[in-house]
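tokens incoming
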């Protein structure tokens, strides 16, 4: 577990330049077992999901495009499929801590939940600093705006 935590911490720092002050919050985000913390990373994921939506809609709103476009951004960029792809593309899929009895590939839903939990962890760890959250999301390519 300590090795996986160190790997996740190094990966996030390298990709996004974000350094966790409280390693336990990152450990909670990547631990899907429910053995260490009740409900595993589900609470952080719920917070992260709302935070992802807020950032995406903050990017969308100035565009003046329709509410339907905003909803489409949320349903595509914030989807489990997309967030699981993000986890795989940036290497976070190697950092998920699964139950010792788990066999086989980690599900799309579990990977997506972990990404949301990491965003939630950044939000909590940074004292709700949305600039830090945006920087991590941008580094992970979770954005409503096309890359330039």
């Amino acid at each position: 577990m300590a090795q996986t935590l160190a790997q996740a911490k190094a990966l996030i720092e390298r990709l996004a330049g974000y350094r966790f002050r409280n390693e336990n919050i990152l450990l909670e985000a990547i631990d899907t077992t429910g053995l260490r913390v009740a409900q595993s990373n589900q609470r952080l994921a719920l917070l992260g999901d709302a935070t992802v939506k807020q950032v995406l809609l903050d990017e969308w709103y100035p565009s003046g495009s329709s509410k339907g476009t905003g909803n489409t951004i949320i349903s595509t960029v914030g989807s489990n499929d997309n967030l699981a792809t993000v986890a795989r593309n940036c290497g976070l899929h190697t950092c998920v801590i699964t139950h010792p009895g788990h066999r086989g590939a980690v599900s799309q839903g579990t990977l997506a939940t972990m990404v949301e939990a990491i965003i939630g962890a950044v939000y909590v760890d940074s004292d709700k600093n949305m600039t830090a959250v945006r920087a991590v999301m941008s580094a992970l390519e979770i954005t409503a705006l096309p890359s330039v």
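note: Residues 2 and 27 are 9 Å apart (CA to CA).
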